[in-house]
Amino acid sequence: MRRETRIAGAVFAGIPIVILSLAVACTWAVAHGASPMWRLAFRFLCHGIPHRCLTIWGTPMPICARCTAIYVGLFIGLAIFVLAPWLNEKTARWAMAIGLTPMAVDGLTQLVGLRESTNSLRLATGAAAGLTFGYWILSAIERRDQTARAPS
To answer: Cα(128)–Cα(20) distance, rounded to whole angstroms?
Structure first.
């Protein structure tokens, strides 16, 4: 694996770790008496509608179930690339498109009022999207210079 890919992987892995850690810490603090206003700090990342969030310590997290699953999936997708980097970028891109489709369908049908999604479905579609995106992003970085230098 190229040095640039390792650096990008570390940076991209840090993002979900930090966000999820802060979300859990915020939930713990609110559950133990801190002001619920702390949840507002996460509004730039997610709507945080309480009934769409996972609940720990009897308190809804500040990010919804789908966003939580996206971050977990992103981390797992990055780890899978490190363990199994042989999938080419084009295939990874198609896998990402397929992985994003269920989330898009779920979100759009909910948005237009056709139905209400469940947290289980939000978790599944978010994890698929995050996992495939995580794998694709490192695949694209790893193959970037190789495709630029390839003879025509």
So the answer is: 17
57 inside domain = yes
- What is the structure's pLDDT at 14? 93
Residue 152 lies in a domain: no
Q: Is residue 10 in a domain?
A: yes
Exposure string over 81-115, b if 16+ CB within 10 A, otherwise e: beeebeeebeebeebbeebbeebeebbeeeeeeee
Supply the pTM of this predicted model.
Answer: 0.87
Write down the residue that tokens 């978790």 correspond to: 123
E strands, 74-141, are none
Q: Domain range spanning residue 43? A: 3-144
Q: How many domains does the chain divide into? A: 1
Render pLDDT for 14-72 as a digit per residue (tens, 0 to 9): 999 999 999 999 999 999 999 999 999 999 999 888 989 999 999 999 999 999 999 99
Residue 150 lies in a domain: no
